[in-house]
Structure formats: C-alpha cells, structure tokens
Amino acid sequence: MRTIIKGGVIVNSEGTFSGDVVCEGEIITQVVANAQSGPEDVVIDASGLLVLPGVIDAHTHIKLDTGIYQTADNWLIGTRTAAAGGVTTVIDFATQMRGQTFQQAVHSRLEEAQDAIVDYALHCMITDLPAGTEESLRTLLDLGISSFKVYTTYRPNYYMDDATLLRLLKKAREIGGLVLVHAENDSMVTEATQNLINTSRTGWRFHPLGRPPLAEQEAIHRTLFLAEAAYAPVYIVHCSTGRSVELVHEAARAGQPAWCETCPQYLLLDERAYLGEHPEHYILQPPLRPVGEPEKLWDLVARRAVSVISTDSCDYTLAQKQAHPDFTKTPGGLPGIETLLPLIYTYGVDAGRITLPDLVRLLCENPARLFGLAPRKGFLQPGSDADIVLYDPHPEKEIHHQDLHYLSGYSPYEGMRVKGEIRMTFSRGEMIYRQGEISGQAGRGRFVPCAPFSSGLVSE
C-alpha cells in the first residue's frame, strides 16, 4: 500500500513546485508532478499546503542532566513536542561525565531515549580527553556519532583548555569528526560574574552583564585560529551576535571549513526581556543580546552566513527557574523545539527575510549534510525516509504556553504572532501528528547513526 501526498507545494533548497510525494512503507519512492493512484493507495489532499522535509533540530537537550540541574522532561515528552512542531529528527547529546568511557556515555543516553516517538541522532559531549587517549575517539565513529561537542567555559565541569581542544581538532580531522564548540571566554565570564556578585547585582535582570558579547566573539576567534592550525572542520553553536557569525563567515570565505548556527531566541528577542515581568524566563547561555543584534543576525541568515537554525532547547520548569532570585543559581536554557518551524516561517519567510528554499536549507538539508544524515534525513527525494511535514501557511494565531506540549509552563515567545500551522507530521511514512493530535507511540523513534563528516557533502 502506498501513501500519496497529492497536490501540495513541494519545497526543497532549489525551489518550489506543485506535485505529489509517493511513499511506500517508510521510504519516499517518487516525487512527481502527478502520481496515479490505485484503489488501495491512501491519498492525502495537500492542496493549499506546503510539503516540507521533516525538520531536523540539530541542537536539543531532552532530559538534560548537567550534573547540577536536570530538566523535568523525558524522551517521550521531548519528542512529542517535536512531532507537534514538525520536527522528525532531533540531534541531542551523549555527555561523557568525568571518568566515563565514550561507550558508557553513549549507551546510557540510548537507554534513556527508548521512549522517543521521532528519530534521533547524537553528538557526544567530550569532557575527559587526557593526552595520548585521542585514538579512543574512533569508538564514537563506530557507534554512529561523528560530531563532538566541547565548551571553552564552565570551568571545571565541562571546560576544555586550548591544548586539549587542539588535540581534539587534529584527531577529528583525521577520523572524520566535526567539532562543535560552545564558545565563551571563561576568564571574561568568570570575572564579569564575580564583579556582579561582589556588587550584589545577582538578580535575574543582571544576567547578560555576566556574559558579555566580547567573551563569545573572542572565543570564536581563538577557536577558528586553532581549527585553522589543525586543518580541522569546526562548527560554532548558538551564535548570539552578528560579529560572531561574521567571524565564522570570514573564515569560511577564506577557505576554512567552518560553519555556525543561530537560534530563534537570538533572532527574535533581545536584552529588553530582562527588564520585563519575567526575566527568569530568559536565563540562558549565551544570554539575549542588545537591541539591534537580532536584525544583524537576520541579515547574515539572508546572506547565507549561517548554515543552521536550531533551538538549544531545555525544558526547565517555572519552579526550577524561580527557585532562586539569583541568576548564578538559575538553570540556563529555554524551551523551543515545538515553535521552531512556525517562528522561522513567520519571521523569516512570511516577513520576506528569507525564502521557502532557504528555510528548508537551514532547518532540513544543511543539518543532514553537516551531521552525516543525508540523504536519509532532511530531503524529499526517492530513497529518503518519508519524514514529511504539511504546513498550512494561511492561519494566524498567537503562541500561548497552554497550547504547547512542554512541561516548562511558559514560553519565551508568549503572545507572539505566528503565521501558519503544522497540519500533519509524518515520520518514516507514519502520521504521528495531525491538527493538534499526537498519535505517535512511545518507542517508535529510532537511533539514526551519523556517517563520518565530509565537507564535500555540505553546500551553502
């Protein structure tokens, strides 16, 4: 039996066209102008709808445990929000705690993910890489993980010094790994934060002063320098300022294999949120930036200086956010998986900042190419998984947290207008969401191994 999604506007990174998508079992078999249906086929009328590849959220934190804070969600809750948001693949993290082997870290995370209803891949967070142990990174490639996340801040838990980072970059280049970097200058952050503590300015509204833009920009500059010296590919996560993206883009234009992402919170919000009624909602690292930075970022997105838009989603509850009126004791992160596609469609495509093909490139195809999932994920083409989203571009409504599937009890985008809505989400040919109803069952999601990194697969 086939499923035929008929008469919609099919979108890929090259353009849009009217046509049909034919699925057999879990796979797309045809993308044609007019598929002929038989009596046993299931035909879904997509007239007036956009037919998109399932979104890949390339940076998520479901059931996050930092060693200090733990989000209240689990993989069933986290992937239900994904399905409702048209996200059919999440790329989360296996965190190597101090003293753990890579195998232990990955197997522990895979055990936690068994209730997922959408497919998932993993980056590995590297926290323990003594000199001489770099060869052990090959284990991650064998386990289907080809991207390695590190931090230039958060001493002593996650912090990686420059010498270790250089060793990691060199080995990643050799074995087909891609290094992801959370870039903030730890000394600058530590000093700025300590100054706020010393002057009794630890209320939530002071949060952005503890992590200045220069701390991010300097760490990106240094990371790019080390990556160039190692001839290694590098990916900078959650860029929050225009200059951050410009540094990466300048390196890439000079021939360096360097890419970056930004997130809806940095495209749509600024530090005025800390002066509002609920500054605790916006405690995250890096923080929201000064007025004007979102427009700079949108301009860089339109110029293709940004490769991916992801969420960095963390589902901390209001109780956790409000437990201490001190930003140094408040867990950092905000929820975002479910609102990713509607926000980028509304404030990107509908606002005229980017095109529909740009949206697919940023949310689907580029994440698949960069993280070894292409062409299985992120594409509407024969042989790809039948991960498909039907998006109705016509309705208008506002975001309210009561309508979302998070546990957080708030949305950072509360009251914001969105244009359009997800009508249906298909994961490997199965309809898992339809107009407000999530039908995907716990455990149907699968781990998707990532192929080794290849810069030849990545196109801007």
How would you portray this structure in words?
By secondary structure, the protein is of the alpha/beta class. Helix content is 28%, strand content 23%. It contains 12 helices and 19 strands. The protein has helices spanning 75-84, 102-112, 138-142, 162-175, 186-198, 213-230, 242-253, 264-268, 293-302, 318-321, 340-350, 356-370; strands at 2-12, 15-24, 27-32, 42-45, 50-53, 55-57, 60-61, 87-95, 119-125, 147-151, 178-182, 234-236, 258-262, 308-309, 313-314, 388-398, 417-427, 430-434, 437-438. The chain starts with a strand and ends in a 22-residue tail after the last strand.
Number of helices: 12
Query: In percent, how helical is the residue content?
Result: 25-40%
On the 0 to 100 scale, the average pLDDT is 97
Number of strands: 19
Radius of gyration: 21 Å
Strand content: 15-25%
